[in-house]
Amino acid sequence: MTVLAPGTLVVSCQAAPGNPLHAPESMALMARAAEAGGAGAIRANGAADVAAIRAVTALPIIGINKLGDPSGVFITPTFESAIDIVKAGADLIALDGTRRPRPDGQRLDQQIARIHEELGVPVLADVDTLEAGIAAREAGAELVASTLSGYTNGHTPSGPDVELVRQLVAKLDCPVVAEGRVRTPDDVRAVCDAGAYAVVVGYAITNPMDITARLVSAISTS
Ligand SMILES: CC(=O)N[C@H](C=O)[C@@H](O)[C@H](O)[C@H](O)COP(=O)(O)O
């Protein structure tokens, strides 16, 4: 896999509406800070953020386009949603690789084939289970990530799904990326020990609102 080198720490630079950092300029600064810290790639959402980040770094960009209802398929849910992300400079498209119904009724293999043929970039499938990972690989994804584990079954654990990473590594003949709730050096070591090819970290680096809230909730007075 040439787009993403083995052992890469990918920093996910995303800020949702309501976050004061929700602006392409902020995400570009985050990406520069991540690169200065040693990140080997950036994950970013939406054409405006991808373009702003592309303008300030030559690092590979994993582009996504979050659209629609977050309780369903919403990470680059259709072929059309990937077009502007690649035009903006993404080197790789990440998309929902779960087995849930897609909003346009297309199959995952159809969406991936069109991205390959019409946009010419590789695809990373964000999955929630081993079965979804196997299916996404069969559907043509070049990489599979544990991104959606804990977000499709009503129960979100506090740490990364190390066991899913281990299972995906054992079953798949492609790079497996660890993503989702990786927060500490111990988390990074655990997913690397499980065989992760690369590791994506988001909130723990790029969401000071979330970091602050977690620390505030730990304050106790007596
Ligand atoms: C479930 C979902 O929507 N995940 C999104 C995918 O792009 C992002 O909101 C996460 O921040 C990203 O996956 C990195 O994970 P974490 O921020 O936990 O390090």
UniProtKB/TrEMBL annotation:
GO CC term (a single one): cytosol
Enzymatic class: isomerase
Top-level division of the source organism's lineage: Bacteria
Keywords, ordered alphabetically: Carbohydrate metabolism, Isomerase
Pathway: Amino-sugar metabolism; N-acetylneuraminate degradation; D-fructose 6-phosphate from N-acetylneuraminate: step 3/5
The EC number(s) this enzyme carries: 5.1.3.9
Gene Ontology molecular-function annotations: N-acylglucosamine-6-phosphate 2-epimerase activity
Keyword presence, Isomerase: yes
GO BP terms, alphabetized: carbohydrate metabolic process; N-acetylmannosamine catabolic process; N-acetylneuraminate catabolic process
Catalytic activity reported: an N-acyl-D-glucosamine 6-phosphate = an N-acyl-D-mannosamine 6-phosphate
Family: Belongs to the NanE family.
Function according to Swiss-Prot or TrEMBL: Converts N-acetylmannosamine-6-phosphate (ManNAc-6-P) to N-acetylglucosamine-6-phosphate (GlcNAc-6-P).
PANTHER family: N-ACETYLMANNOSAMINE-6-PHOSPHATE 2-EPIMERASE-RELATED (PTHR36204)
Name under which the protein is recorded: Putative N-acetylmannosamine-6-phosphate 2-epimerase
